[in-house]
Amino acid sequence: MQTLLEFLKNLFSSQNGAKESNELDTKQEVDIGVLQHRVNDLESNLKTALRRVNRLEKDIYELKTLKGQSHKQGQSPLS
């Protein structure tokens, strides 16, 4: 499978008509670096969001469990 860096290099090279060469100019290398940084940030944000969702699912499960237990004991769910 092609890495993101290889894909971007090929994309920029083909746009320049340098299909056989992997040489990129400085601006393109900077653009690739910026894109890689953004992808890394997005991956980090996604992982954080998934951890939060998992935590919320756990909290919801615990609240439902507590509510069920309090109803069985004849107590108010908020007591």
Describe the structure.
The protein is mainly α. It has a domain at about 35-70. Helix 1 packs antiparallel against helix 2. The chain has helices at about 5-15, 25-70.
Question: What tags apply to this protein structure?
Answer:
2 helices, single chain, 79 residues, mainly alpha, rod-shaped
Poorly predicted runs are none
The number of helical segments is 2
Largest beta-sheet characterization: none
Specify Rg, calculated over alpha carbons: 25 Å
The secondary structure category is mainly alpha
Helix content: over 70%
> Which series of helices and strands comes N to C?
HH
| Strand element count | 0
Mean pLDDT: 81
Q: What distance separates the N and C termini?
A: 56 Å
Strand content: under 5%
Shape: rod-shaped
A few lines on this structure:
The protein is mostly helical and 79 residues long.
Architecture blueprint of SSEs:
Layout: H1 4-15, H2 26-72
Helix pairs in contact: 1-2
